[in-house]
Amino acid sequence: MKIWIIGTWYVWLIQALWLAKIGFDIICLDIDKNKINDLKNGKAVIYEPWLDNILIETKSKINFTTNYYDLNNCDIIFVAVWTPQDKRGRTNKDFIHKASISIKDNLNKGKIIVIKSTVPVWTNKEVSEILWEWFDVVSNPEFLREWKALDDFFEPDRIIVWFDKNKKTDIAKEKIKKLYDFFIKKEIPYIETNWSTSELIKYAWNSFLATKISFINELSQLSDKVWADIEKLTIWIWLDKRIWKKFLNAWLGYGWSCFPKDIKSLIHQFQENWLGWKIISSVDQINDEQLDYFLSKIQDFYDDISKKTFLVLWLAFKPDTDDLRESRAIALIEKLKINWANIYAYDPLEKARENTKYFYPNINVVERLENFENIWDIDWIIIATEYKSFKELNWQDLKIKVSMPVIFDGRNILDKEKIINIWFIYKKI
Ligand code: UGA
Q1: Residue 245: CB within 6 Å of ligand 1?
Q2: Rounded to whole angstroms, how far apart are CA atoms 200 and 10?
Q3: Per the count of CB atoms within 10 A, which of 48, 106, 236, 309 is most buried?
Q4: What is the mean pLDDT of residues 176-182?
């Protein structure tokens, strides 16, 4: 079976590579010639562990093009274009509409069009209208996480599909089932549902995870006031088997990839249906406030942070990615800079450091932490991203570089006892 994938960025490239690895022939299309050239030369346009190796491994099964006409011999077409937010926070559907029009104008009838992009309710119906009864439209949302995308592809929690009803639906159903046969055999739930459920699930899923994060973050502020221990409190909540422990860490809050965008889109979907939205709008607000709250903790410790020098450890929105979008570390650095603080910042991933230098040239990026040789006159240290490897840093050596040994841990990852034992003052969420 030949599969064509429109879009070559994150989720879409991963899909392409793994489907090729399973044995399907893939053609990836992107209108960006530079991206396609990079991919043809085996250069990954995103960062994921093992990605370069898989690009080499699947070389013979995967082709890249910028031309819609190349794709007429494919059975299934995955539409995985970008669905960014517009200025008002709604989902911008222009890319998905344009891709649908290009399919209609350039391709032979009878293809199966699978919508993978995260799209608000009604979008699949709109695509169906653009494509008339000439093509079968299938909604099949994607749930990959950055950095874990390769694992998530092979171990999905479920596969959700909706088939638009027209005369060829049975053939489409058969082909999509065949496509996912590898997963169905592994007993991964394969669920057919109606169009709006299939569209809403991604928003519900991401918003629920973000809600858990904001719930515990809000509670952490009360805990501080009444001298309760938020970490212990969280563990004891987890002990109830009905509450799943993941995404219940009181930290600095969430960044990209999709929580902020999907929450805003969901709010608009409530609005468009004349419904009130209470929980969901607080989730984003609490996430923003958590950053200010953390900053106020720093300022409580020392009122005037102007001219103080901070070493901010880790820059991306989560560990092992080069993605800086809505990263809490970057947002915090910007707030510190408004208060005239000086910043050194470090991320172990070269690509994340490069992106920081490119997008935020006013941030002083440190290239290496070994021996801390290029770091001078730090006043305080901030941990902004939840890298576990921080624990292995030689804090004793680093202490020599710090005028006032204080660590503000925005991810509660350090062992308080150990760090206090080596004479650091330790402040956490
Ligand atoms: C998220 C979802 O987890 C995926 O299922 C979804 O497919 C993807 O968005 C998407 O819509 O594309 P991702 O954003 O890559 O995946 O990363 P997560 O591991 O979910 O982390 C998101 C943010 O939450 C990070 O900034 C992380 O630091 C933060 N986080 C996570 C917390 O602040 N607290 C926690 O307890 C856990």
Answers
A1: no
A2: 21
A3: 48
A4: 93
Q: 224 Cβ partners below 8 Å, 6+ apart? A: 230
Judged against a pLDDT cut of 90, whether residue 205 lies above it is answered with yes
The β-bridge partners of 344 are 311, 364
| Cis previous bond, 257, omega within 30 | yes
Would you say the CB of residue 387 lies under 6 angstroms from ligand 1? no
- Quick: pLDDT tens for 264-311: 999 999 999 999 999 999 999 999 999 999 999 999 988 889 989 999
**Spatial separation of the C-alpha atoms in residues 250 and 231, rounded to whole Å:** 7
Q: How far is CA 237 from CA 220, 283, 299, 373, 412, in A?
A: 13, 20, 31, 43, 17
For residue 81, the CA-to-ligand 1 centroid distance in Å is: 20
Measured CA to CA, the distance from residue 426 to residue 346 in angstroms comes to 20
pLDDT at 166: 67
- For residue 321, the ligand 1 atom closest to its alpha carbon is 15
Residue 149: pLDDT band (50, 70, 90) is confident
Predicted confidence band at 134 (pLDDT cuts at 50, 70, 90)? confident
Tell me which residue has its CA closest to atom 8 in ligand 1.
145
Ligand 1 centroid distance, CA of 91 (Å): 19
Q: For a pLDDT cut of 70, what percent of the chain falls above it? A: 98
Atom 10 of ligand 1, nearest CA residue: 258
Catalytic residue among 258, 312, 324, 414: 258
